[in-house]
Amino acid sequence: METKLPLLQQKHLNKRSKSFYKPYWNQTLQTQWNLSCECEKKWLKFKGPPHKKKLLKENYCTERKIFDKINRKFKRKYQIQKENELHEKLKSTNKREFWKSIGKLGIANERKNQIPWEVVDSDGNINTDEKIVLNKWKSDFETLFSNNLNATTPEYSAENDQMDLSNLNCAFTREEIVIAVEQAKLRKAAGCDEIPAEVLKNEIAIELLYVICNGCFELVI
Fold first, then answer.
1. pLDDT given for residue 106 in this prediction
2. 164 conformational bin, left if phi > 0, alpha if psi -120 to 50, beta if neither
3. Which 8-state DSSP code applies to residue 115?
4. I need a labelling partner for 130 at 20 to 30 A (CA). Which of 49, 100, 191, 217 fits?
5. What is the 3-state secondary structure (H, E, C) of 189-205?
């Protein structure tokens, strides 16, 4: 009886594996992809001198760059082709074909078959009948959006009318300016005034902001 546990042969997934959802994939890309994979295997499995392994790595990087270049090339051609087709359909008198093509863009078209055509009835059983499912959805939406006559409206509270808002008519204090400057985040993009927050974090800038803000408040700007 063997005393060692059997080793599990794990498959190493290649992060650069070809996606079967690329509509522009052709024989040229497949050939270059296979060549890149062969060069990568030769480089990784080589056990000889380091300088030869370095040459194999450079060869692999070269073939990989060639693949990336032609991949971008065919992708651009495909995108331009689809864009021209949409322009032609937009110029045609039949706009329905144009909107059909727009609707097929993205992943929404792939999700049609994944709609859960099943509901749980009042007895707790799962029902997959299409008519029952549609009627269940219809009744649930009608209940959701219908006006509930038995619902009670909340009574109006006059607490907000009794709040003291007189401090909103007071001028800015220096402490408020200091707190606002201290809370400004550093290393962030400047606004339309092109003044970063780092420039404002000093006594001179705070005093200047205090004068400007109160001046604008008094002039009702």
1. 57
2. beta
3. S
4. 100
5. CCCCCCCCHHHHCCHHH
